[in-house]
Amino acid sequence: MIRSSSIPAVEAVVTRAVDLFKGTLRRYKPWYRPDRDEQRSGNTERNLTFQFALGFCAIHGDAAFAAMEVPLLSARGRHEHHLDAYLFAPPLAVLLECKVHSGNDSLEGVVGDMARMTPSVLQQIRARHQGPSEAEKTVSMVLVEAWGRGGSCTRRWLDEAERAKWSREKLPPDWHYDGKEIFEANSASDGTLYWLYAYRHLDLTL
User: What number is the average pLDDT over the span 175-193?
Assistant: First the structure.
């Protein structure tokens, strides 16, 4: 498969969300242990989702909406699952799953999140719209918080062979992978916060 290329509209949201979150971290430490430089598990997934949604709505303004924990039907026809967030504006729609990565744990959960964001899920979500439901671009996206040092997290995330070892299952190659350094608490330990993310186009014909 061909690796997905970057999408400027998505990258713009990531950049805005990163800038806003950096501004928050200059004034407030939201993670579990603000007294520790080395964070193995920092923010909650809900906070991570919220930070990305802030960036999305800051760019798209009144044209945007963000829905959190969107109910999804299971194979049994029950609302037993949910999507962390659905973000919509006429130029861009994002199906978003977030994960907080702890220490050396694998990324198996991320693999599962990627697999769940299917055309049938998109169809369920679009059926909830009270008006136009199709954006110019629609993507499925995962956002992972990880702590490391010296760019180690992003190097592993961007290298296909390293990603495969990290996840214990091969992360799909047809997604676009990237990462951002967010905050450095301590350069001598695993005290640097990163956002690792991946996305691809999603439509009903995949």
Answer: 81
